[in-house]
# Entry
Amino acid sequence: MEEIFVCPMPDPWNHIYQALKVAWQVNPKGKNGPPIPLILGGWNFSGDYEKKAVWEATIRWAEDMDLDQLIPELTYEQSYFVSSMQSYSCPSEYWNYHPREKPEKAAIEIALEKLKLSWLLIAGEELAQITIPLCFTGKKSRRLLVFAEYSIKPPWGTWTQIVPEHRGKEFLQFRKNINKTIAPLEVDHIDFIQIDIAGKIHENTI
# Structure
């Protein structure tokens, strides 16, 4: 069976990211920095499709910045291959197994796929670089579990609270965009999973 290239392995991906970041800091050209690689916790809390999407976004970013020469040709050992692409599966501890009235499982899967495909438009360029929608949870699937890069703060304040002067506008728009995308489904809460450099999980809800 033919193997499918997904992205670099974590160590070479991080080396590439650091090289791109340094070059961007020297001459940002008015643009945001390179996409944050899915390494450390991001590697464990993402599927093959998410990894491939972020890596391809990194290549496009480097080409737009005329920095693609900083991306070396990867050896087999530096590359992550799979026999078939797999999506991230939400850990069982995040699911509530009480009977649900709605929505159906198929509708939930379709809604999650819509979020993943439209995440850049939903979250915006900066936020999309540091977050990944993972799955719906709760009795009626009205909670969205999202991985968030621990070292970077969201535009509304922190991952645990909304800064008063922001009045929650950024977060409310973020949730509005999510609900618009998955309609007629809707989420009431967003749970952020944060993973620090030591691999410790921090779960917060807004």
Remarks:
- Residues 105-123 form the longest helix (19 residues).
- The longest strand covers residues 131-137.
- The mean pLDDT is 84.
